[in-house]
Amino acid sequence: MIPRYLVNFDVRDLPHVHTDVIVIGAGIAGLFTALKAAETKRVLMVTKKSLLDSNTRYAQGGIAAVISDEDSPAYHRQDTLIAGAGLCSSAAVDVLVHEGPSGVKDLIRMGTEFDMEDGRYALTQEGAHSQRRILHAQGDATGAEIVRALSEKAKGDPNIEVWDDHFVIDLITEGNECFGALVQKPDGQRVFVRANATVLCTGGAGQLYRYTTNPDIATGDGIAIAYRAGANIRDVEFVQFHPTALCYPGAPRFLISEAVRGEGAVLRNINGERFMERYHPQLELAPRDIVARAIVSEMEATKSTFVYIDFTHESEETVKNRFPTIYEVCLSHGLDLSSDWIPVAPAAHYMMGGVETDLYGETNVKRLFACGEVSSTGVHGANRLASNSLSEAIVFGRRIVERILDMPRSEVLPDVRETERATGSPIQPVVEKRLKLQKLMVRYAGLKRSAKGLQKGYDELKRHVSLFDSCLSKRQEFEFANLLICSLLTTQAALIREESRGGHYREDFPERDDLVWRKHTVFNRVNGITEGRNDDV
């Protein structure tokens, strides 16, 4: 059903570019991995927009790491495992909590300036964390500060070449080994970038849904191209919906950080009632999936499209200093975070699953690595603990580079050609198709799911697979093809898992079932669907 390659080509006819490491995507995963690799290797970074465009840039809350004397890796480990609802890899979590602090020191050495208080790093607490361990920058602009520091360093590194506005169509593989990527330049010309190691840092797939905190570029490209290349795709039924995205006419679904609730903000329904006590003893600081579903339940009960977040107990000065970006964005839409209740609703935020890797970021395809949100390292399980994503990117980015340094050079020149694909007429404009897909995913594979809805959604999505017989040539067409693959995998995985766990909630199977479902769903284009037990936690 899904072809190996999206376009016809013959590597012998393509221009060749050689590099040691190709990093696909930017964000904290791409930038950090590129900078570490560039200490000894030549690196080519390929971004479909620019170094400054990624999910990282919009990350507000911060980065989780054990810095305080009152905290410990054991506490961080326990919090991560509890949030992950029985599907974390204990080995991967151990790596994260023990290596995270030195990764943060690397970020600081690379120029990241985290907020200080009385000569020490200012730490905050977020939902489901037992300790204050979240470092932040400029109050609520942590991601933007990290991207600023790392992109400035990358631009000045003589071992890093950056290709902005380029699109990776597919990975070039032969005999389950990756030799680089097929890249389309802004003028439409295609080139084979040959590399000793290929690192996917393409971020998430928020654009699967109509309402998302992710930028337009988060179209699941890495998951889809890895799937076509034969990599294992794991746990994609687990999608995290952030509970509190701004929900206001004319405003984008802008993230109202979890840290706002960490600093004491409360949730109210449209009748002004505080409601979280009816759902969880941790109230507003319950795990994200519980808070998000509670909000949807209140919206349904009150026939509203939003609830309120109330931060009016704090002074205007405190609100401005702690959350300057959120304050300014709200103000630009006529809302004052310090005196108004802010209307919010859940929005797609983070993909817990992705391309399955080992503890050094390598996939089951040789020389192919994945880092950041595109990967499934085992850290997040069924529900990511807040602010662990930035930590995961730097910890596993460092490990990927360690593995690359030990790899022998590849001297094989692959003889790959794809000429058997049908070359039907160009497809119709995909803007409308993309919106229909997003609406379908919200309706059938969103926060609340059922067999009937998921099957209907999957059947409707399958009607689009004739797309792969068309002649694809534009970036929007490749993106839609990638979204289609991700949506098919996500709905199928959600249909298979007949229980509720973490970010996956089935109304027809509302209970968690550890006896049967403490396992992973793994997709492979060649080998089909397999299941892996998770007995190590």
From TrEMBL:
Annotated organism of origin: Paenibacillus mucilaginosus 3016
Involved pathway(s): Cofactor biosynthesis; NAD(+) biosynthesis; iminoaspartate from L-aspartate (oxidase route): step 1/1
InterPro entries assigned to the protein according to its UniProt record, in alphabetical order: FAD-dep_OxRdtase_2_FAD-bd, FAD/NAD-bd_sf, Fum_R/Succ_DH_flav-like_C_sf, Fum_Rdtase/Succ_DH_flav-like_C, NadB, Succ_DH/fumarate_Rdtase_cat_sf
Entry's EC annotation: 1.4.3.16
Domain FAD-dependent oxidoreductase 2 FAD-binding residue range list: 20-390
Gene3D superfamilies, alphabetized: FAD/NAD(P)-binding domain, Fumarate reductase/succinate dehydrogenase flavoprotein-like, C-terminal domain, Succinate dehydrogenase/fumarate reductase flavoprotein, catalytic domain
Molecular function GO labels: L-aspartate oxidase activity; steroid dehydrogenase activity, acting on the CH-CH group of donors
Record protein name field: L-aspartate oxidase
Oxidoreductase listed as a keyword: yes
Function: Catalyzes the oxidation of L-aspartate to iminoaspartate.
Biological processes annotated in GO: 'de novo' NAD+ biosynthetic process from L-aspartate
Cofactor requirements of the protein: FAD
UniProt entry keywords in alphabetical sequence: FAD, Flavoprotein, Oxidoreductase, Pyridine nucleotide biosynthesis
Location of the active site: R288
Taxonomy, superkingdom: Bacteria
Reactions it catalyzes: L-aspartate + O2 = iminosuccinate + H2O2
Span of domain Fumarate reductase/succinate dehydrogenase flavoprotein-like C-terminal: 434-523
Enzyme class at the top of the EC tree: oxidoreductase
Compartments in which it is found: Cytoplasm
GO cellular component term of the entry, any: cytoplasm
Main location, first listed in the record: cytoplasm
Family: Belongs to the FAD-dependent oxidoreductase 2 family. NadB subfamily.
